[in-house]
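Known limitations

Files may contain more than one protein. Parsers should not assume a single record per file. Below, a two-record file is shown to illustrate correct handling: read the sequence, read the token line, then continue until end of file.
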Amino acid sequence: MKVHLFNPENDLALASGEANYTPPLSVRRFKEALAWLPKWYAEPGDVILTPDSRPEIPADATPAPWGWSANTVALFRRAGMNGPFPDVEAIRRLSHRRTALLLHRELSRDGNLPYPLPPEPVEVTDASEITSGDILLKSPWSCSGRGVVDCSGMTRESIVSIARGIIRRQGSVMMEKKLDKTEDFALLFETENGTTQFKGISSFFTSSARNAYGGNLCASQEELREKLPKLQLDATISAVNAAINRIIAPFYSGPVGVDMILYGPERTICPTIEVNLRRTMGFVSLELYNRLGRGIFRILPHPADGIQLIKHNPYFSATFTPEP
């Protein structure tokens, strides 16, 4: 039996490194609003831990959070659980965006991709080394579009100022070339006992207003494959699976989501946008398709029509809209 916990603040908790981390109010509201989301991927007999409930937990139950950090361990301990808990310091290290850089180098070294990789990201610790132009700045620990700054059109002075702030808070900043994105998607994997298994494709979209996660197309894997260039996709799945097996699987067991894009007129894959060592909404969308069929899964900061996936609240909605 598993005890599920939806803790979307986990990337921020990893950045802090503190066991007693308190997220901002907006994140706390999001966590409380979507606390029951795990019911859509939990198995019969599992337990869901929420901010307003403390269910009785059997001694042999297995903790199953959205993501692991020192804060996650503290939350489970306060609920009366004694583990098993993973090596959260290893997870914190691998959740840093330099893992995307390491993945880029692994893929480049192997040479098994039928397309060129874009320039590799650069980790910067001195803001004076920041360049200007069409670049992105990424906070080392961040997710779902947050912590990413599009510097197009900014003055170098403004870019350096932003970089300096990120470096002050998290020790460094990742700088990479902005690509002409045409589509978002992700590959989903599961690592266990040193091995990696490909679980599926996630086709997601972002909120144009906030450049943050907006929702997923829940559809068959065959349909999702048709949206992507086949030869590039098959080679990417194989190469990324092998790279994760080398750089992540020996140190971490659990879900891994690798965000990617198609870019440019030739719809080339960039396979190293973001590496998430946690459950993602893509994993949720896989389960929603299995349980509810084809449709659109959305998370919005206001009420919305569709099948309601969470309890009513004044802050967020999570809905599923069936589509033929």
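...continuing to the second record:
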Amino acid sequence: MNHQRGKQSIVFSNRPYVVGAAAVVGVKEGQGPQRKWFDFILEDDIFGEKTWEKAEGKMLKKAIDLALGDGRVPEKQVDLLLGGDLINQLMIANYAARDLQIPFLGLYGACSTMTESLIMGSVFIDGGYASNAVCAASSHYCTAERQFRMPLEHGNQRPPSAQWTATASGSMVLSGRRSPGRNIRISAATIGRVVDPGIKDVNQMGAAMAPAAVDTLLTHFRDMDRTPSDYDVILSGDLGNIGKNILIDMMEKQGCPVTEQYNDCGALMYTDSQDVHSGGSGCGCSASIFSGRVIKEMRQGTLRRALIMSTGALLSTISSGQGESIPGIAHAVVLEAEGGE
């Protein structure tokens, strides 16, 4: 069977099972509307550590440990760990991998990292190069603010278009074999292209990423010969409220409306009363909702087929300082539930 569809999409012959999943979030996220879907909510965002970065690393490892427990997969049976974060040189994922001692591939796709890891893990399992793989991503409001914007102590004003980096992590365990009561499989994926709309304002992340998300969606539907109605839900990663509306408008103009099926994790994570302005962002935003709400709803039978897509703003502290624009990217993965749990 030809696995490739078009230039960017893959159909998996030996579709990996999602046998375990877990989502860990911070205090603010645990007070939001997605609270019931999360597996562990921090009592404080420092998580008993001395630094925000150490807290995020502990949070990521907690999500991985919980996902392994959920899937009843011993750590020693995991062939590969794929994951990443937003901090320089993948500091968070690197140190979590050091503690776990599982063969590790660090990935950086900015906030698109979760679906990037799922695609890579699925390729390894589909090709017979791994039996079990862990995919994970994390972010933390305080670590991201310290790196990309202002020191927290400055208390600088945030414009209405700004998004709130979620303190969150998510993990999924993929396997070539089904575990009892686990029938969710990854059937296909679409790898995104870098799309640059020329936006330079670091407080307009949603607008910078939306064109890449639209490009990936249109490519996916064309490659797979599908329409939005073929999915129970289509979820993008962290476009937030502004980016979500831009995507809806752009898809409408392309003659491919997604309004009925579509939502965005950044728009779902918080309520208006939590004062996050345009919604959530960060690797952990989509990772926690995909590993929490989406997987649980599929296990409950509420969803049968889901298209999950993480979006990433490919900037750095150096690029924005040099006046560069903010390229975007988006990767999409198809989750399907087979039969009953």
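Parsers that stop after the first record will miss the second one. For reference, the second record is described as follows. The chain has a mean pLDDT of 94.
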